[in-house]
Amino acid sequence: MSDTGFYADPSNSIGYLTRIAFRAFSRALEVRTAPHGVSSGQWRFLRVLWREDGLTQRELSRRVGMREPTTVIALKSLERSGFVTRQKSIEDRRKVHVFLTPEARALHPVLMPAVAEVNRVALEGLTPTEIEVLRKALTQVGRNLAADVKEDVPTDSAV
User: Which stretches of the chain drop beneath a pLDDT of 50?
Assistant: First the structure.
């Protein structure tokens, strides 16, 4: 059987399986974050800003792995929700920095356990060795595909 025939079956396609897993991760996380007013799309940005507040929109976009127009839409949503403010840079007026509000900072200790829980649920039945192999394999897959399209690998993950 050729590679094409092999990958015609979705259960053989790593792309299909990772998409299904990603969607399941997103839904499982959103079930836990939505009661706090945070969508899975907003979550990605909050997680990065909890680690380093005050990033420029461009840097935040890079770290989350989204295109800048998508980041602008997400930031408007985060602003409407009262989770971030945007401020023009004093040194370079073309740059806009993104800062967490006190409300968003207060969500950190509430929502981070949700991430741990989602990961725990996702990894049930896997040995520590299998988990390490999975981490390394997914990291390499991301690097390979990023190199193929010549873009940076995001430095932070969604879940």
Answer: 157-159
Residues 6+ apart with CB under 8 A from 157: none
Q: What is the pLDDT of residue 4?
A: 67
| Measured CA distances, 141 to 1, 151, 152, 155 (Å) | 24, 13, 13, 14
What is the model's pTM?
0.79
Q: What is the pLDDT of residue 154?
A: 60
The CATH number of the structural domain formed by 3-148 is 1.10.10.10
Parse the chain into domains and list their residue ranges: 3-148
One-letter amino acid of 75: L
Cα separation, 29 vs 25, whole angstroms: 6
Q: Residues in the chain, how many?
A: 159
